[in-house]
């Protein structure tokens, strides 16, 4: 795991420090993503889990709440979901970056 980043503030006012901590939190925020299962030939899909990518690891929770995963990356978490899905109807898994980046699909 990465060590916390300590950044010194130059702000001496409450307003200036508020802006500083908001910018810091946004810059250090993990990237949210979802793992989506595709069924059949694009017949339907469902979200299997949501996660956060911290750069050096990814944390994922299934939507059912019965499966939690810590992985090296979101891509590796996708591979683990692919291996553990057990549903023969699942044709493909998609890694969807929440926030506008296109999805990454892994065909089974």
From TrEMBL:
Domain of life: Bacteria
Listed name of the protein: Amphi-Trp domain-containing protein
């Amino acid at each position: 795991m990465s060590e916390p980043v300590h950044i010194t503030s130059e702000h001496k006012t409450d307003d200036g420090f508020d802006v500083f901590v908001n910018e810091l939190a946004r810059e250090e925020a993990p990237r949210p993503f979802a793992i989506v299962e595709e069924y059949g030939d694009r017949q339907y899909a469902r979200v299997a889990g949501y996660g956060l990518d911290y750069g050096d690891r990814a944390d994922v929770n299934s939507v059912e709440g019965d499966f939690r995963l810590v992985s090296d990356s979101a891509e590796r978490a996708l591979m683990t979901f692919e291996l553990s899905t057990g549903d023969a109807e699942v044709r493909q898994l998609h890694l969807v970056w929440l926030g506008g980046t296109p999805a990454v699909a892994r065909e089974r």
